[in-house]
């Protein structure tokens, strides 16, 4: 049986339910995180909790517990479920209100922590690489919805995923309003060219925690890494492309918009970083 943390109590998954008047459901009014635990340790727990609280702060949502209490509840959820390798989904909604969207009508936030086993998100594709599609739907403008609010409103990302799906891709790559490469539907993007690694600035995408971890791995392994404005040309002429995210981890991209990248196989730099990231996840983190 799986236990869900719901407003301070553990509830069996089949019984864990929220009201139809919860504004998380009615309006996507809430924030969330995706976290992984490896080998009995939660990877970058503090960073994820901090990002959750920053997202909440930005939308004036006061999470009714401290960051330390949230981190403790996440670890307790894993212990309760007997998980040492897991994907963890804390989410906080505005709570129950009426059918109007005014958040002041919501008396208290709903806090949930879901955890489960979730092996490599893309299965066998890590060996052959993903097929990516740059989609026509643009990343939400930061002026309309700042990408660093990790909100429950993922419709922009879902539209991108739908477009990639119908065009035969495994992952969608967004451009921003200016035509710069932004990110994937649920991950950040990197390109390798002439031995140097580049990734978009974080003005138009989510500042991924995996992104930063992989940059640290790359620097420790002696690669040059830079942030840059990247365009379609940079993708189409890349030696290697990969995406990073908590769920996706480090995933090679070997085809983009019909162009074959790196001979259609994961390239040497990507493979080196996949190995380095794996080592990092297995040896660092907060004990459960
Ligand atoms: N961009 C988006 C839109 C995401 O949903 C995610 C997943 N959280 C990422 C990037 C990667 O972020 P992280 O490495 O912190 O999981």
TrEMBL record:
PROSITE patterns in the record: AA_TRANSFER_CLASS_4 (PS00770)
GO terms, molecular function: L-isoleucine-2-oxoglutarate transaminase activity; L-leucine-2-oxoglutarate transaminase activity; L-valine-2-oxoglutarate transaminase activity
The keyword Secreted appears for this protein: no
Cofactor: pyridoxal 5'-phosphate
Keywords carried by this UniProt record: Amino-acid biosynthesis, Aminotransferase, Branched-chain amino acid biosynthesis, Pyridoxal phosphate, Transferase
Pathway as given in its UniProt record: Amino-acid biosynthesis; L-isoleucine biosynthesis; L-isoleucine from 2-oxobutanoate: step 4/4; Amino-acid biosynthesis; L-leucine biosynthesis; L-leucine from 3-methyl-2-oxobutanoate: step 4/4; Amino-acid biosynthesis; L-valine biosynthesis; L-valine from pyruvate: step 4/4
Domain of life: Archaea
Protein's GO biological process: isoleucine biosynthetic process; L-leucine biosynthetic process; L-valine biosynthetic process
InterPro entries recorded: Aminotrans_IV, Aminotrans_IV_CS, Aminotransferase-like, B_amino_transI, BCAT-like_C, BCAT-like_N, Class-IV_PLP-Dep_Aminotrnsfr
Top-rank EC class of the record's enzyme: transferase
Catalytic activities: L-isoleucine + 2-oxoglutarate = (S)-3-methyl-2-oxopentanoate + L-glutamate; L-leucine + 2-oxoglutarate = 4-methyl-2-oxopentanoate + L-glutamate; L-valine + 2-oxoglutarate = 3-methyl-2-oxobutanoate + L-glutamate
NCBIfam families: ilvE_I, PRK06606.1, PRK08320.1
Protein name as catalogued: Branched-chain-amino-acid aminotransferase
């Amino acid at each position: 049986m799986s236990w869900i943390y719901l407003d301070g109590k553990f509830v069996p998954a089949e019984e864990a339910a929220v009201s139809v008047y919860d504004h998380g459901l009615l309006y996507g009014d809430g924030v969330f995180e995706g976290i992984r635990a490896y080998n009995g340790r939660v990877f970058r727990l503090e960073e994820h909790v901090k990002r959750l609280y920053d997202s909440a702060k930005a939308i004036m949502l006061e999470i009714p517990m401290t960051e330390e209490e949230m981190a403790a509840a996440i670890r307790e959820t894993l212990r309760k479920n007997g998980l040492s390798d897991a994907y963890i989904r804390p989410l906080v909604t505005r709570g129950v209100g009426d059918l109007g969207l005014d958040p002041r009508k919501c008396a208290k936030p709903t806090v949930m922590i879901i955890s489960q086993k979730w092996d490599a998100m893309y299965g066998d594709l890590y060996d052959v690489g993903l097929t990516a599609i740059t989609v026509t739907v643009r990343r939400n403008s930061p002026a309309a919805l700042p990408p660093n609010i990790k909100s429950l409103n993922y419709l922009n990302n879902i539209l991108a995923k739908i477009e990639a799906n119908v065009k035969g891709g495994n992952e969608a790559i967004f451009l921003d309003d200016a035509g710069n490469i932004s990110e994937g539907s649920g991950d950040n993007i990197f390109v390798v060219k002439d031995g140097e690694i580049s990734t978009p600035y974080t003005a138009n995408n989510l500042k991924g925690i995996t992104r930063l971890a992989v940059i640290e791995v790359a620097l420790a392994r002696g690669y040059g890494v830079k942030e840059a404005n990247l365009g379609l040309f940079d993708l189409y002429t890349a030696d290697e492309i990969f995406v990073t995210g908590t769920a996706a981890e480090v995933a090679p991209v070997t085809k983009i918009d019909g162009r074959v990248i790196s001979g259609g196989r994961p390239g040497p730099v990507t493979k080196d970083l996949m190995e380095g990231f794996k080592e990092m996840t297995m040896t660092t983190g907060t004990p459960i």
